[in-house]
Amino acid sequence: RREIHDAIATVGGGQGAKPRAEKPVHDAEVVGIVDQLILQALDRGASDIHIEPLNRRVRVRFRCDGVMTLQGDLDPVLYPAIASRVKIMAGMDIAERRRHQDGRTRFEHPASGRTCDLRVSVYSTLNGQKIVMRVLNRSAKRIDIRESGMSPRVMERFLEEALDVPSGVILITGPTGSGKTTTLYGAGNYLNNDETCI
Fold this sequence. Notes:
Blueprint: H1 2-11, H2 27-44, E1 48-53, E2 58-64, E3 67-74, H3 79-89, E4 101-108, E5 115-125, E6 128-136, H4 152-163, H5 180-191
Antiparallel strand pairs: 1-2, 1-6, 2-3, 4-5, 5-6
Helix pairs in contact: 2-3
């Protein structure tokens, strides 16, 4: 509908058709929106941020404890600038809009001092570029393995039969937000000492 109205306004056809006044996009506003989304995700303990252009709106959802929850909508007029901002942050090609792209960045918010690592995927959909940001909270990685939430009996077996043996392979599996990365970093911290090279 909007594209048809824009085309009519551009050609000047129709009765009383007027050119549509586009809202100017300011860089500071776009940077603030992206920063705010990431800070909200950190506050809620979200593992993923999904920004999805739909037919008439841009939906934002967070994945918290493995469940997708609606966060709100973004202004569709600002979305191209928001997508470009995220792609610049992640070291992607902003001119590429048809192929899937992956990138990563470290987010550091100067005002709040909050930091996290982001893995970013951008791919084309019917309505535009969808953005998925995986939030890797740096503070969550420095956990003591004994504080990971395993029951005492399971923890005892994990330490004795997996971490304390001199060789072998450990598979850590589970759905999004189940604690795979936390367990991995906790195990690394447990094994890290003067005699071991991690």
